[in-house]
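Lay summary. Proteins are chains of building blocks that fold into shapes, and those shapes determine what they do. In this project we predict the shape from the chain. Here is one chain we studied, written as its sequence of building blocks.
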Amino acid sequence: MEATQNKRLQQIDFLRGIAILLVLLRHKKLFSFTVTMGWIGVDLFFVLSGFLVSGLLFKEYQRFGNIKPGLFLIRRGYKIYPLYYLTYGIYCIPFLLYGQLAWDKVVSDLFFFQNYYNGWGYTYVASWSLAVEEHFYFGLAIVFGALFVSRYKKYWIANLDKYLIGILLLILGVRGITVYANEASSVHNITNTHLRIDTLLIGVLISYWYYFKMEDLRVFFTKYQQFFLIVALALVSFTPFVKIENSVFVQTFGFVFLYLSFALVVLYFLLKEDIVAKLHSVFSEPIVTLVAKIGYSAYSIYLIHLAVNYIFKTMMKLYFDWLIHPIVGFTITSCVSICLGILLTYTVEAYFLRLRDQRFPSRSA
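And here is the predicted shape, written in a compact code that computers can read:
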């Protein structure tokens, strides 16, 4: 689904586009409620990433009867690292200009343990979520690599969903204890991998059902598809009204509500017949195509958008004495971020993905 655009599912790219638009709404004020709820875009990314990335390993196993964790991690590296390190230098510039660069925190950013060392990312605040994903990739490769060579691999594969559900419940318990111990004001409740990886694991659970128990999943979905949408909407309905900071509810059960909601949405988008045609009828084909294109470039947009926001804010302070209207500010920064992200995707990212596919061909294509 990743190597070339014509192999991708447009409905999944559409969801990725919605996710990155939510992130843009979080980090540049349009309305107060959009800032309050925009953080859920990261959780939607987590669910989609869990589904898509584990799906690569499941498809590889179904095709060859084994997986190559090293190859998987190398291919992930070609996707993640070049753009991350390229854009990271941009975020260091203001710190260098003011002589405030803390090298220990830079190291934590560069090696993806900033979510434990600093809470948020340091120079690039939103990089905490990339650390969570990196830990997930390595953990997934190690665990699946061990399971798929075990003499009991048929047992593990047959019962993987039961163990995943058990892990989800365990993480909820650990998170509840941690939030009450730390108090809800601690950023680590939001950013630490062991407290947030359940949102990725629900994506793995969906992927497992999708690749190994499709018939049962399809029968179940067909029976309850309308109910799925109602429940998904109900579970996410609190997000415009409750801030993530200082909320015990959000940092415990709220995260569960979100990943269950997004899991149902992803299932609906995967299994609903003619979903792309339905999206075209609701939003129009040009809008769906545009949002999907934005979703295709979501990683690059995610990396560059805070730099665009910072430059825009600085220019407003230097050259303008009046406050620009939030709608105008959001429109300008979002359009610039999206355009730059698309440019980076089709140049830098595309170059490294071509190298990757030449040197390390996919086993799951």
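What the prediction tells us: Residues 1-6 have pLDDT under 50 and may be disordered.
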